[in-house]
Amino acid sequence: MSKDKLWGGRFTQPTDKFVEEFTASIDFDKRLYHQDIRGSVAHARMLGKQGIIPLEDVEQIVHGLQKILQQIEDGEFDFSISLEDIHMNIEARLSAAIGEAGKRLHTGRSRNDQVALDIRLYLRDEIVEITAYLDLLIDALLNQAEANLDTIMPGFTHMQSAQPILFAHHLMAYVEMFKRDKGRLDDCLKRVNVMPLGAGALAGTTFPLDREYVAEQLDFPSITRNSLDAVSDRDFALEFLADASILMMHLSRFSEELIIWSTGSFQFIELSDGFCTGSSIMPQKKNPDVPELVRGKTGRVYGNLMALLTVMKSLPLAYNKDMQEDKEPLFDTIDTVKGSLKIFAEMIQEMRVNTAAMRRAAGLGFSTATDVADYLVRKGLPFRDAHEAVGKAVAYCVENEMEITSLSLAEWQLFSSKIDNDIFECITVEASVNARNVPGGTARDRVWSEIQKVRAGK
């Protein structure tokens, strides 16, 4: 009944049972228990420091909260839907355990600023963990890049063979993407790491709270500057969801390539059996389920971002019950990103590379045609004329079903008199790769240098 609830003094009729179940959030927000207790301990100590509640009450509160924390972690705490959320469950248990002192904990505090604090504490911890998983994935990519510094593969545009590149160079492209993802999360952390407690329900409080003291206890470098904004802000969660969506997009792009590369048509890589499944009817199948699932899960992360954007888009200041819908999209995204990163790092570490298949494919599709055009430019021909001459050579090869590496000197000279015997030194895939010795290029020395810079944290 409402009159039995911690907020029930104003009510004379019981809460409808279905309404109670519909509005409760304990089924999903109970994962905030550690942050809720940590915040309450800091709040209680501040209340005692300021003389707002007796110091002996503070001791009882802190001891009681620590005991509840242990009960939850030992699986001995029964969560109640009738108490709605993690905050009320813990406070009710505390009051039952230590009496009047427990009832003083909520002095100068609202569930509105309490939940804002819990989410910030929780997300701060999770961003640190996600960043650690990103480091594991980057390390796995670096290991594969180092092992494949001499592995040449076709680079693609429009999914057509374009120019030869090092497989290590391709992997390092994803390293750059994931480094940017880390940078976005680090930047997001600055806006997450702001302490909202003390905002009260929306207008602050009449008690002389020391908000900076609480922030110091909870390792926050700053406090919120406006009480209305503090309880109604979920920008930091939206920013995280946006960053997570970009991160998952990068994983999805990589997944798509792993799926393609592992097909019988490419055979560039083989994923470890531990990350694949078979078919219930076709005994020969080895399906790349992990990258397929990561590719699929990207959609749910996008959906979580859109869900919270939609929740927030029309809310007047300050707190509204709609904002309870912030947690499930946030929690689901955190779980999805962490799981995807963890399994991806392990999968990349164990991935086997078919260097021979990559090398064969690198030489197909006239992949060194641009090198011939560059050769003619160095001989004094304007680039557009060189481009046209090589285009005609390619058309000749298509008509005669041959690669440009098979052309004789006499055939080459049909397209330009400037071509001489040294042309054959330019059209191998090895020469093509190593000729691109510019910062950011695919030449072996450049790729090795980039690997070393990332290893050194540059």
Q: Could you give the order of strands across the largest sheet?
A: 1-2
Poorly predicted parts: none
Give helix % range: 55-70%
- Briefly, what CATH class of the largest domain? Mainly Alpha
Number of helices: 19
Taking all residues together, what is the mean pLDDT?
A: 94
**Sequence of secondary-structure elements:** HHHHHHHEEHEHEHHEHHEHHHHHH
Look at the helices and sheets and give the structural class. mainly alpha
CATH architectural designation of the largest domain: Up-down Bundle
What amount of the residues lies in strands?
Answer: under 5%
- What would the principal axes of the Cα set say about the shape? elongated
Count of the domains: 3
Tell me the quaternary state.
Answer: single chain
User: Would you identify the CATH H-level superfamily of the largest domain?
Assistant: Fumarase/aspartase (Central domain)
First and last CA, distance: 60 Å
| CATH fold description of the largest domain | Fumarase C, Chain A, domain 2
The total strand number stands at 6
Please outline the major beta sheet: 2 strands, antiparallel
> What gyration radius follows from the Cα positions, in whole Å?
31 Å
